[in-house]
Amino acid sequence: MWFKAKAFLKFLWHSKNQHGIHSPFVYKLITKCFYNKKHFEAYELWDKAKKDVLESGKVLQVQDVGAGSKIFKSNLRLVSKIAKHVSISRKRARLMIRLVDYLSVKNALELGTSIGLGSVSIAGSGQAHLTTIEACSATSAYAQSLFETLKLTNITRIHSSFAESLAELDPPACLGRAHLRVLNGQAGFEEKFDLIFIDGHHDGEATLKYFESLLKHKHNDSLFIFDDIHWSPSMEMAWKQIKAHEEVQVTIDTFQWGLVFFRKEQVKQDFVIRV
């Protein structure tokens, strides 16, 4: 708790808004997306989903396969408590909805479905197809029921560990949305994603492994979003290494999220932005 509070004070000291941003790409992203006041229909769908889960009396036997919870002491958890304490916030969900719209996201990947509220923020507009991965069977099944209630048919749910699922992302299962590659004279396929949201297993070493595994699934305009980059010293170290990676051009630290862009036409820069 003290670590995160100290990290937040440091963030506030270094953070900026759109003023003083000298990158045209980032300035436009902030003014046209981060601070966009337009109302999106997907806001209402997400609000409905949040209301439904907050009113749920269902109890789930949750299997923590990541870094564990700083909130819950027991694996028996009310869906309403998960929604209130550890799921994506309304503010962040609305930012995600705006990012999907602004970046014209068509194909997205989420690591860490939980009860599905983050998934709804990505896929709720119907613009993007989302593949979402969750290792816990109870939360994964609950999320599926939520998607069905909301009639979100553009979400593919996978119940599996992140490592297993990432190893299986290549076709034949994904031929329809894949890009052909040729490596050492051998033809193969790698699915490319416009947006990848890493929201689970908040461990620095694991996060770096997922990052490296996911690099082959990016394209020039892809966005990677890492949740809880200031969760712990190991997560901050992972974030530092991700920022320094040779394929990363632009990063934005919003405290809760770290945004990573790979646009080769951009000068390599790191930003700390209040949203």
Describe the structure in your own words.
By secondary structure, this protein is an alpha/beta fold. It has a single domain (2-272), classed as Rossmann fold (3-Layer(aba) Sandwich). Helices cover 39% and strands 20% of the residues. The protein starts with a helix and ends with a strand.
Question: Layout of SSEs?
Answer:
Layout: H1 2-14, H2 24-34, H3 41-54, E1 59-61, E2 76-78, H4 79-85, H5 90-102, E3 107-111, H6 117-123, E4 129-134, H7 137-149, E5 155-159, H8 162-167, E6 178-183, E7 186-191, E8 195-198, H9 204-214, E9 223-227, H10 233-244, E10 250-253, E11 257-261, E12 269-272
Parallel strand pairs: 3-4, 3-8, 4-5, 8-9, 10-12
Antiparallel strand pairs: 1-2, 6-7, 9-11, 10-11
Name the beta content range: 15-25%
CATH architecture identity: 3-Layer(aba) Sandwich
| Bulk shape | globular
- How many DSSP-defined strands? 12
- Which spans have pLDDT < 50 for at least 5 consecutive residues? 172-189
Biggest sheet strand line-up: 5-4-3-8-9-11-10-12
- What's the name of the CATH homologous superfamily? Vaccinia Virus protein VP39
